[in-house]
């Protein structure tokens, strides 16, 4: 995270005695990235965060197989056809992935058990509904359009308020704002499309009583369920630069040019081997002879995974793309507007249309994406040929 926060009670200096009302010491837990040479936070627990009383291996119930995108083809997946099962952790349906990132979809109204992903950060986009994110750092209320970025190793759970649909981006490392948006000291710069005021972190501690509390833990070796002697939500205070936060896509400030700008202007986060972009409503390109629609393009180094979350997709008219669709345009394939879309938008501008209202979340990966069984189960098999109609 680019800025420092304090939540709850902390002592004046780090690593000094900090005592409970009964005279006992609070237990420190330092959460640190990259061998404690990068961002960290220091948490103060009422109980020992190391006190486990049981551990058992867990057999995954979700389908985890991935298949190469062969024959090479653009794809269209209809998430509206995916049935909900489980919760926002165990109910994730794997759509695509590689060694850097896994992309899953989940729809549910059930609360999850406590969970810790020790393989990498997660970025969960809430397509619809409301959910309370609870963690050792505190709680965050989230709703439609929110990205929730969860640091590696954070014990947390998801408590929906009714049905909720999400796209889960699971990284193999850390998810951060793009470096070009940050000063050398970590402040978001004036040219960045969002600022620190747009980011929502936990505002107060979350204390939950409990004993013999199970936590599902994902590591590179598989799944384990650890049982903690005391409830992990016992942190009275913490400070640092590392914590979960929410950012709403409606707070992204689009960068506009006189002619059409390429996808990097929409970049929101970056992770190891991938970027996340937000396509938001914005003024149309305003050069008098502009073509205010994406040109045919071939991103030779990446696969483009686009989740259409709201608005009207004039550039894709006739393709079958609609809200809830996901398109996958792999490296090796040139893609762009559907036939007739360019002239249609030029006519619309001539008739007074000045803005676009489309909204989408895009993940570009720098290694090929393989396909999950969830994606293949809801594929529109005719999508690849829609440019030739």
UniProtKB/TrEMBL annotation:
It comes from the Bacteria. Residues 24-248 form the Homogentisate 1,2-dioxygenase N-terminal domain. The keyword Iron applies. It holds the Pfam family HgmA_C. Residues 289-387 form the Homogentisate 1,2-dioxygenase C-terminal domain. Fe cation binds at residues 297, 304, 335. GO terms for molecular function: homogentisate 1,2-dioxygenase activity; metal ion binding. GO terms for biological process: L-phenylalanine catabolic process; tyrosine metabolic process. The keyword Iron applies. The active site is at residue 260. Homogentisate binds at residues 313, 335. Its cofactor is Fe cation. InterPro entries: HgmA_C, HgmA_N, Homogentis_dOase, RmlC-like_jellyroll, RmlC_Cupin_sf. Keywords: Dioxygenase, Iron, Metal-binding, Oxidoreductase. One of its GO terms (cellular component) is cytoplasm. SUPFAM superfamilies: RmlC-like cupins. Belongs to the homogentisate dioxygenase family. This is Homogentisate 1,2-dioxygenase.
